[in-house]
Hints:
By secondary structure, the protein is an alpha+beta fold. About 35% of the residues lie in helices and about 15% in strands.
Amino acid sequence: MKTIELSQASRPLAEYARELSEDIMLLTDAKRLVAAIVPLKGVDRESLALSTHPEFLDLIARSRAQFAAGQTLSLEEMKKAVLPRRKANKRSERPGAKRVAVPARRPTARG
Length: 111
């Protein structure tokens, strides 16, 4: 990690940022950390926003704690808990009922 005291920066911060490869550059003011310049190669905006969002970070921390405590669900248990229960098609249950193929609905410009 590189550190630059803001009062000692002799070039625009953009120039310092361009020189970064994998390092993080810490910016200080009176030896107190005030900001960081982080290279974003291969990082999309959504991932960046989530990585600093307090509620998302809390959710991740709680999930990790539950996993560490063995509080997990199998894929089948998750499907049962999350997916809606399908109701039987009453028409197909009647004796002698004809089955009719319904073509898939194609999306239109209006949705």
